Amino acid sequence: MNILVLGSGGRESAFAWKISQSAACAQLFIAPGNGGTGAYGKNINLNPNDFEAVKALVLKENIELVVVGPEEPLVRGIHDFFLADESLAKIPVIGPKSEGAILEGSKDFSKQFMARHGIPTPGSESFSNESLQEGLAYLDNHSLPIVLKADGLAAGKGVVICQTVAEAKEELQAMLGGKFGSAGSLVVIEEYLTGIELSVFVLTDGDNYVILPEAKDYKKIGQGDSGLNTGGMGSVSPVPFADQAFLDKVEQKIIIPTIDGLKKDGIDYSGFIFFGLFKVGDEPLIIEYNCRMGDPETESVIPRIENDLVELFMATAKKQLKDYKLSISPKNAATVMVVAGGYPGDYEKGKTITGIDNVRQSVVFHAGTVLESGVIKTNGGRVIAVTSLQDNQFDALQSATADAARLYFDGKYFREDIGFDLV
Ligand code: AMP
Ligand code: GLY
Questions:
Q1: Which of 82, 259, 272, 352 is most buried, judged by most C-beta within 10 A?
Q2: Ligand 1, from 161, 226, 287, 288: best to mutate by most atoms within 8 Å of Cβ?
Q3: Phi and psi for 87 in degrees, rounded to 5?
Q4: CA distances to 53, 134, 150, 199 from 189, in Å
Q5: Same domain, 311 and 418
Q6: What pLDDT digit, counting tens, does each position of 113-166 carry?
Q7: 349: containing domain
Q8: Total-model pTM
């Protein structure tokens, strides 16, 4: 069958890499893709939020399966758009309808959902401009630090951690005043957790689910987890501190109540659910849902999945996950993200990338790259994810880090410490 992957990052490169290995895949299209995805299929330059353009491509190329990488088209209702169109309605879309994507699209909705279904999460209250005075009073009695979250999608920038009440009051007013546009017209004020973060993923068909390999993402720009937050500087899978007893708790206390809660609320959800978790002591708490896979977690998770990804997606679309046996490699994956100098602040694009052929023990997943007249150039902040899959964690970390060093472009930066804190 012909398959379309929507998106352009390292996550979509990993999907495309794996899908292209499937015997069930005739032609693969990636839209818009990046400078590396052309190796797995055909790049089509369109915006995944332009549903009419997606429709035209799907009909022209006889696409029979659509995999949606990023959250924005899902929150905007691309799956609903397909279902409402006679010519598209039968084509499986991997990713929830907007009624399910709201788990990521509205933090206030997701916090209410967690509370309604008894899913462990830090305490919180939401405030809008109308309730600003209550919000300021609420902050007066809040423990420190204080976490403020813009309700809507804010390109990964909508979470601010404040060390003082005064700072939190200023931030609340700034958010409600439009700092993040309409995404901040409602603000969730949340208790701060002290613990260690990890990401757990399921793929669900609405009734049943498979649990994918867990991963840990390194969000800070600097060595030793210092400096500004980024989209993610690297990842590892498996996560050593998430032993089976802990993962069983995650399933019982978080995954099952989420899947059941969706059913109770009448939300027909099919696609990925990303659980952003904290391990506090031995207990899991959830701080967020995403309606898609993580990036760069996907780059560590996908190489550990031994099943045919197209089969897995079709089983999801046909609601056949009940008897599906996922086969996970016991090997360790490590991903190091190579980024542009200046990221996550301002950075330049258009730098020529060399050394990709020198990579020895890793797979290179392009992210912010573009192919221009046969030359690979930088085209984003997160440029290339380097993933190594090895028998033990130390070897995976070492080879991914060494291979990241083999790439070169002007201003290149990567963290040399990804995962070594866990060994
Ligand atoms: P998010 O954009 O929701 O992924 O949040 C960004 C980061 O903020 C998370 O990865 C955490 O490191 C941090 N964070 C979010 N919520 C909390 C919380 N309740 N306590 C401590 N840190 C948090
Ligand atoms: N790596 C975190 C995310 O994809 O949101």
A1: 272
A2: 287
A3: -75, -10
A4: 39, 12, 9, 22
A5: yes
A6: 999 999 999 999 999 999 999 999 999 999 999 999 999 988 878 899 999 999
A7: 196-422
A8: 0.97
